[in-house]
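Hello again, I could really use a second opinion on something today. I've dropped the whole record in just underneath, so have a look.
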Amino acid sequence: MATSSDIRKGLCIRYNHDIYKIIEFLHVKPGKGPAFVRTKLRSVTTGKVIDNTFSAGHKIDDVRVETHKFQYLYNEGEAYHFMNTEDYSQISLMKDILDTPELMKEGEIVTVLINTEDNAPLSVEMPAHVVLEVTATEPGIKGNTATNATKLATVETGAEINVPLFINEGDKIRIDTEKGQYQERMKD
């Protein structure tokens, strides 16, 4: 049993007869009254996101997990297929338990959290950033960079990202997977 002080991003807990992964949290100590932890939880079975507040010292039932490296192979509709990089076994996961499936390209190495009690995969953690090639975007207009203007660009996985005006088709860009935002243009 853990307490609310052990809450961290990525922790899997048992709550309301389901297993949830903490995707955001904030420790709050108001000037008046007891401290509490405000959390955003995602169900690993349904993908539903809920907000919850735990009072300071509240006992939480954490789920023991192991992490394994898997390589993303391909997807068939809502099912995404991964291969364990150690023993080459394959698993199939549904799209709703993935954090940002639209930013995964084939061959990407991800971390899969597995419940130690029943060996069921709970969630997939992407690397902090990915490098993807821009496949379609409007050309930038010279001299139109005085402001922080952005335009939509489609990357090789099909995701649409807001990018600065100087990004062109064929450029490789680095994308923050947590926020799904452009970080920088990569040099060749």
About this structure: The chain has no helices and 16 strands.
